[in-house]
Amino acid sequence: MKATEWKKYPSRARAKGIREFERREPFRAPKIDTMAAMLIRDALLVQQIRSEEAIEGTEPALRELEGMDADLLGKLTQHGIRKLDDLADLAVDELVEISGIDDERARTLITRARAHWFEAEQ
């Protein structure tokens, strides 16, 4: 479009200019779904990193306890339980409340955590 056309036919020139601009530079905004997925992914990644950092500060015997998994270990570390003795000192209902596991699993984990107390006596 020539410079003089802008002055003679402003509306046509604007329309032609806009079409020309759109043809050259299409608007490429990320879709809302894509942005939301990216934000959720980033939040989950940060949560996973924090959980792994918290797990690193736990006693190896607690991490290696039979029946212990990463999710449960993460919940325990959030409540300050970082050693095998910390777990052994809990009552079954306390562990159920902290972790959301069933009574039987809580009882089994606490019994396994207390086993080293009795092995030392024998």
SSE diagram, text form:
Blueprint: H1 3-8, H2 10-24, H3 32-56, H4 60-63, H5 70-78, H6 84-88, H7 92-99, H8 103-121
Question: What is this structure, in a nutshell?
Answer:
The chain is an all-alpha fold and 122 residues long. 75% of the residues lie in helices and 0% in strands. The protein has a domain at 58-121: 5' to 3' exonuclease, C-terminal subdomain (DNA polymerase, domain 1), CATH 1.10.150.
Largest β sheet strand count, sense and barrel closure: none
Indicate the CATH topology of the domain at 58-121: DNA polymerase, domain 1
Element-by-element helix/strand order: HHHHHHHH
Give helix % range: over 70%
CATH class of the domain at 58-121: Mainly Alpha
| Discrete helix count | 8
**Helix/strand/pairing class, anyone?**
mainly alpha
Strand content: under 5%
Poorly predicted runs: none
Distance between the termini: 97 Å
Under CATH, the homologous superfamily of the domain at 58-121 reads 5' to 3' exonuclease, C-terminal subdomain
Q: How many strand elements?
A: 0
Question: What's the overall geometry?
Answer: rod-shaped
CATH architecture of the domain at 58-121: Orthogonal Bundle
**Assembly context of the chains:** single chain
Tell me the Rg in angstroms: 31 Å
The overall average pLDDT, rounded, is: 79
